[in-house]
């Protein structure tokens, strides 16, 4: 009886760790989320938005030939380099993210105007997945 109970506890614990695994960043799922970004972005060319190939690890505002908003440009000058972690935060509210970055850097005077990226992604899991997908773009 006790044995059977322990077995059930073990199975429940295993199922628990599986569901934790599902919240990890999933680039394959991120590729599907990226369809929403493709209205404005491609990996290899500028469209409404800058080319995103190699964006993870790149200083913001530096896609060749793309004209960024003054706000986005200022964040790059202040040292914003994209990582999977900060893209997850940025996508929730790009405008607020860039302004907070500049304010935290002591450049509140430059935290004005708005970014040209008018899109927000509310779902945190989708943000994590698409950030993992961005890291695969060359
Ligand atoms: C409606 C068009 C639009 C959509 C949809 C959109 N973006 Fe953007 N994105 C832009 C524009 C325009 C910029 C340039 C921002 C600026 O200059 O202020 C940008 C900038 C960015 C940057 C910064 C790039 C750099 O070179 O520093 C990232 C990262 C980004 N977008 C990711 C995404 C992702 C991921 C999605 C989908 C989840 C997405 N965007 C959806 C228009 C869009």
TrEMBL record:
Residues 1-24 form the signal peptide. The keyword Transport applies. Residues 25-138 form the Cytochrome c domain. SUPFAM superfamilies: Cytochrome c. InterPro entries: Cyt_c-like_dom (IPR009056), Cyt_c-like_dom_sf (IPR036909), Cyt_c_1A/1B (IPR002327). One of its GO terms (molecular function) is electron transfer activity. Keywords: Electron transport, Heme, Iron, Metal-binding, Signal, Transport. Pfam families: Cytochrom_C. It comes from the Bacteria. This is Cytochrome c family protein. It comes from Rhodopseudomonas palustris. The lineage of its organism: Bacteria, Pseudomonadati, Pseudomonadota, Alphaproteobacteria, Hyphomicrobiales.
């Amino acid at each position: 009886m006790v044995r059977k109970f322990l077995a059930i506890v073990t199975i429940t614990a295993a199922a628990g760790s599986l569901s934790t695994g599902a919240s990890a960043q999933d680039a394959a799922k991120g590729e599907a989320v990226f369809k929403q970004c493709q209205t404005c972005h491609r990996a290899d060319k500028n469209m409404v938005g800058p080319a995103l190939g190699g964006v993870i690890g790149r200083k913001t505002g530096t896609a060749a030939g793309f004209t960024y908003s003054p706000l986005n440009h200022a964040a790059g000058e202040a040292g914003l380099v994209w990582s999977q972690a900060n893209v997850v935060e940025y996508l929730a509210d790009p405008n607020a993210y860039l302004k907070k970055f500049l304010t935290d850097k002591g450049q509140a005077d430059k935290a004005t105007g708005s970014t040209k990226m008018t899109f927000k992604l509310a779902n945190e899991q989708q943000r994590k997945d698409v950030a993992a997908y961005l890291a695969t773009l060359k």
